[in-house]
């Protein structure tokens, strides 16, 4: 059996190997030392919205940390839950100034249970606690519809679902909520473009308030509108 020639401690080969190892070690240390940016996404629903974001999360999990919670709460109580979760006692606490917290819920107007006031208070509480809002008026399905075409007519969620049935090759109501993201991913850039255009169009239609919060509340109360695109704009950066 042939014997391998030993490398002398002071040889160029030894130094080159050592330098190469040191470089790799420092590089690995740098990659491991910097924690991944984290998004805590707290959703009103327990299926459609969480499943949608989890499908995207599986594709970008090596680059960013998505923590998704289907809270089963609405407007004000949802924002209160997000605030609790981002604090230490919630177990999902924000650990870095670079981390972001998002609430995903619908306008879904109901006259009972102080719905209007709670919706406006939810927006205010979120802004006070650095919680971002991915709100849809009237429903999250508006975000899906905007993947196909620009839409700016006031409507109800039932009509949105009917329109999605017409747009999709198979009926929206028959598709498992785990499949929504996969079905629409190729149209995502178009959806962002349409949603952003819709949201910005209201700047010319409403009387801008001195308060940025008051203006934001006015815009979120307009049907149709959605700011889901703002969250997706950030997450898309981590797609290959």
SSE order and pairing:
Elements: H1 12-33, E1 38-43, H2 48-60, E2 65-70, H3 75-86, E3 100-106, H4 115-128, E4 132-137, H5 141-145, H6 157-167, H7 180-184, H8 188-201, H9 212-220, E5 225-226, H10 228-235
Parallel strand pairs: 1-2, 1-3, 3-4
Antiparallel strand pairs: 4-5
Helix pairs in contact: 3-4, 8-10
Which key phrases capture this entry?
single chain, 47% helix, 240 residues, disordered N terminus, globular, alpha/beta
Structural commentary:
The protein has ten helices and five strands. With 240 residues, it is an alpha/beta fold. A five-stranded mixed sheet has the order 2-1-3-4-5, sandwiched between helices.
Task: Write a brief caption for the model.
The protein is α/β, with parallel strands linked by helices.
- Radius of gyration, in Å, reads 24 Å
Shape: globular
Distance between the termini: 48 Å
Question: Oligomerization state of this entry?
Answer: single chain
Class by helix and strand content?
alpha/beta
> What's the tally of helices?
10
Count of beta strands: 5
The whole-number mean of residue pLDDT values reads 83
The percent range for helix content is: 40-55%
Largest sheet: 5 strands, mixed
- Strand order, sheet with most strands: 2-1-3-4-5
SSE pattern = HEHEHEHEHHHHHEH
Low-confidence stretches: 1-31
Taken as a percent bin, the fraction of beta residues is 5-15%
